[in-house]
Design goal:
binds uridine-5'-diphosphate; 15 strands; 7-stranded parallel sheet; alpha/beta; Rossmann fold; 2 domains; 19 helices; 6-stranded parallel sheet
């Protein structure tokens, strides 16, 4: 047995689609480099083990039901997971250590940053831990700054982290970026950010699903703040293309529809797995799409609209337009859609996975951030990288139609498209031998192998 096969990594998942995807992709990447993998996950939103026959799955009792997850606010649900999962996780890993697993000693716990309690478990068991950011690296700095800034009487920006060399991030003021994370975070949000930052500081390293060139100015600043090594080995999905972890069934019918559309003519519209539209937003979105006169593929999750039969809420004329130049699905094979030649733009909520997936296919974006780090990603896309446009928060049909046309048909959109294409090429280069991601991944593998039992 090789050194790596004798080395088991326990990856701890946070059970939301936007976190499950990158963590399982990371597991696939590390497995392809020879490590044995155990996936520890709350029972809620359990991934399908049959999609990953090489991994061992370890469900952790979480005390949550689907309805309790939906009913509670996001952060109190997270706090419940933290409360309920820590002890069972410690117990299971301790058992693995005692049983001297023939498929490899547990070398390290690699945890989604949101599951910060896993760092405590690692320290109780004398195991090294590595923190994983499934969001942009800059969010590490934002998480670190918020609680301390708040202590001084909400956002005074006197904090040295912000005042010092970090005040400028490329062309954008870091303060503007922080405000996009929400102007009045709740106590539970601040508690989460503080706990995440503290776990981050106590971990041996951080893995970030980012590409070095995307965040080249901020990465050294983050590195000097956190000290432990940071491995920027994104985009995970390009290193683990076969990994499937969709919780919803993908409607592949849209690919045949895309096959019939003109090259780069279609606007793909999706707001990820969490963000929803109320009745008014749904109507404005539909009418904005209609007024734009562009073909569109729109993902409307059943739960994202106000009622199950959401189509009935829309005027008859819109339903006719769907027949002429639109296609609506409940869940799309998004990576395949973005890679399709007919897609010329992506109206997105700017979740980090969607952002990376769009960059990797050179698709320019129309940004409509809803919560969390999405505002931060939108600023990156529209103000720093200039590979997209930002839409106003209040959805109004005329403004939507205007923004779609700016992106899809006007000269301004063409400039953005060329920039997006250049980003795609740089993303591909990062994966080549000697590219930033490839180099960082090799370093990460050596780093993990350096842990002694
Ligand atoms: N996704 C998908 N089909 C859809 C919409 C989204 O497969 O119809 C995937 C998308 O490719 C991405 C993930 O769901 O990997 C959403 O993650 P993201 O970070 O963009 O947003 P979140 O859902 O966390 O808000």
């Amino acid at each position: 047995m090789s050194e790596r096969e004798n080395c088991r990594l326990v990856l701890v998942l946070f059970p939301l689609q936007g976190h499950i995807n990158p963590m399982l992709q990371l597991a696939t990447i590390l497995n392809s480099r020879g490590f044995s993998i155990t996936i520890a996950h709350p029972q809620f939103n359990s991934p399908d083990p049959s999609n990953h026959p090489n991994f061992t799955f370890l469900p952790i009792p979480d005390g949550l039901s689907k309805s309790s997850f939906a009913a509670q606010d996001f952060h109190s649900t997270m706090l419940a997971i933290h409360r309920n999962c820590q002890e069972p996780l410690r117990h299971f890993i301790q058992q693995m250590l005692e049983q001297k697993d023939p498929q490899g000693r547990v070398a390290c716990i690699i945890y989604d940053a949101v599951m910060h309690f896993a760092q405590k478990v690692a320290s109780q068991l004398n195991l090294p831990s590595i923190n994983v950011r499934t969001s942009a690296a800059v969010s590490m700095l934002a998480f670190a700054a918020f609680p301390r800034v708040n202590e001084q009487g909400y956002i005074t920006f006197t904090d040295s982290l912000i005042q010092d060399e970090s005040t400028k991030l490329q062309s954008l003021d870091l303060r503007d970026l922080l405000i996009t994370m929400g102007e009045n975070p709740s106590d539970s949000t601040l508690e989460l950010r503080a706990a995440t930052t503290s776990a981050n500081r106590n971990s041996r390293a951080t893995i970030v699903n980012t590409i070095h060139f995307l965040e080249e100015e901020i990465l050294p600043k983050i590195q000097s703040y956190f000290h432990a090594p940071i491995f920027a080995i994104g985009p995970f999905h390009k290193l683990a293309p076969s990994s499937s972890s969709s919780l919803l069934k993908e409607d592949t019918g849209c690919i045949s529809w895309l096959d019939k559309q003109v090259s780069r003519s279609v606007l793909y519209v999706s707001f990820g797995s969490m963000a929803g539209l109320n009745e008014e937003q749904l109507l404005e979105t539909a009418m904005g799409l209609a007024m734009s006169e562009q073909p569109f593929l729109w993902v409307v999750r059943t739960s994202s609209a106000c009622r199950t039969e959401w189509l009935e809420l829309l005027p008859k004329e819109f339903q006719e337009i769907i027949g002429q130049r639109g296609f609506v699905v409940k869940w799309a094979p998004q990576k395949e859609v973005l890679a399709h030649g007919a897609v010329g733009g992506f109206w997105t909520h700017c979740g980090w996975n969607s952002t990376l997936e769009s960059i990797c296919e050179g698709v320019p974006m129309l940004c409509w951030p809803v919560f969390g780090d999405q505002g931060l990603d939108a600023k990156y896309i529209s103000h720093i990288w200039k590979i997209g446009l930002e839409l106003e928060a209040k959805l109004e049909r005329g403004k939507i139609a205007g923004a779609i046309r700016r992106l899809m048909v006007e000269e301004e959109g063409e400039v953005i498209r060329q920039k997006a294409q250049a980003f795609k090429e740089r993303a591909e280069q990062s994966l080549d031998v000697g590219g930033s991601t490839n180099t960082s991944l090799n370093e990460l593998v050596e780093f993990i192998l350096s842990f002694q039992p």
